[in-house]
Amino acid sequence: xxxxxxxxxxxxxxxxxxxxxxxxxxANGKGLxxxxxxxxxxxxxxxxxxxxxxxxxxxxxxxxxxxxxDFYHRYKEDIALFAEMGFxxxxxxxxxxxxxxxxxxxxxxxxxxxxxxxxxxxLVKNGIQPVVxxxxxxxxxxxxxxxxxxxxxxxxxxFETYAKTIFKRYKDKVKYWMTFNEINMLLHLPFVxxxxxxxxxxNKKQIQYQAAHHQxxxxxxxxxxxxxxxxxxxxxxxxxAGSTYPYTCxxxxxxxxxxxxxxSFFFIDIQAxxxxxxxxxxxxxxxxxxIEMEQEDEAxxxxxxxxYIGFSYYSSRATSTDPxxxxxxxxxxxxxxxENPYLEKSEWGWTIDxxxxxxxxxxxxxxxxxxxxxxxxxLGAVDELTPEWTVNDDCRIDYLKKHIAQMAEAMKDGVExxxxxxxxxxxxxxxxxxxxKKRYGYIYVDKDNEGNGSLKRYKKKSFYWYKKVIxxxxxxxxx
Length: 479
What we know:
By secondary structure, the protein is α/β, with parallel strands linked by helices. Helix content is 39%, strand content 14%. It has 16 helices and 16 strands. The chain has helices at 18-21, 42-48, 71-85, 96-99, 110-125, 141-147, 154-170, 190-194, 204-229, 251-273, 278-286, 297-303, 323-326, 354-368, 394-412, 461-471; strands at 11-15, 89-93, 129-135, 176-180, 234-241, 244-246, 308-313, 317-319, 329-330, 337-338, 344-345, 351-352, 372-376, 417-423, 443-445, 457-459. The strands form five sheets. The protein has an eight-stranded parallel beta barrel, surrounded by four helices. It has a two-stranded parallel ribbon with strand order 6-8. The two termini are 12 Å apart.
């Protein structure tokens, strides 16, 4: 673990999302957003996949995003805690429906714009750079209702208007932007990733890839606008990453693993290289998919590629073509994976693979030759508050320590990494399950799965550990 070094100015910090932290879901003119329709419990997973029969919340269901951890009202105290840890950056997202409540409003909501002005001012005042995701699993519900969300070309220009609005407003405060959070999630949880709801008989693949094309064009237009409005800013894309291992050295398994990875690389290939790759064209042909494009799309994609690749890394995956082996697929993660006998698992069944982090970083850098930004990494675990009002989260420290060490190794390999914002530095609502008990933070929030609790904040053991990591610029990972 010794001999670790990170460059001066490396952006240490944490990452949250508006819909998992802010709460205040209809405050000051905010419109309903897709995540506001995700209850806890059995219905949640089905809705996330696009099987939704109501575009308004159900009576008697609990919706964790509606209050979340009330960051909307408590951000000053939370930022003070992040500043105490020495954060250099905080990744946040802007809720589209705070700025344009319906998504297609003629003018933006000033109260929403002002909230993010205040938030960014507070960050800057504390020496913390805002890293801003424009769309983090967030579509105004009206756009789903009126246009069918991202299946409709109309959203490209509505998104462009939204992006230009926030670039102009925050150009003096925000230098790092990302277009879509985990853009590849559109293929796995289409309602979460793109607000897509399906009816019986829909050709889901056709709809998903058409929606993907619209998001990719919208991303290119956002890159163009960002470069024009804030010439000294950097704007990236964002991938839910994690290498897929073949279960055996059978060439069939190796090819299957490559195909799995390409399903995700497809999006970044276009955002970073500027064109549809050959394997995607073959996939469309083999599956009788026709992507409708406008004349200028190819030039837009080619001329407005991203400045850096943001990515999340939690675990690696494994795949096989053997039907018997496939019976051992774990469902803990959104990305199904065969159990890897060489790796431990988290309480939620996610494989713990620090070496896979180094491997993924190398893979992305080799492929794109653009700077990387690790914008999510962490361990979701059940935490117990002690009588001394802290949490002894050694397992989380151990996970992060090993992953940061492997990130340092990747940088020694020649991989350029801008920064590291671990996921959920304060406990927030879990995106996949809607639970509070699946905690990632250095700061404990007193709230349970049913929404009960004081919302008080308490420092965990990892708070002091991460503070030291930042203080020493990653040279000390001991605790």
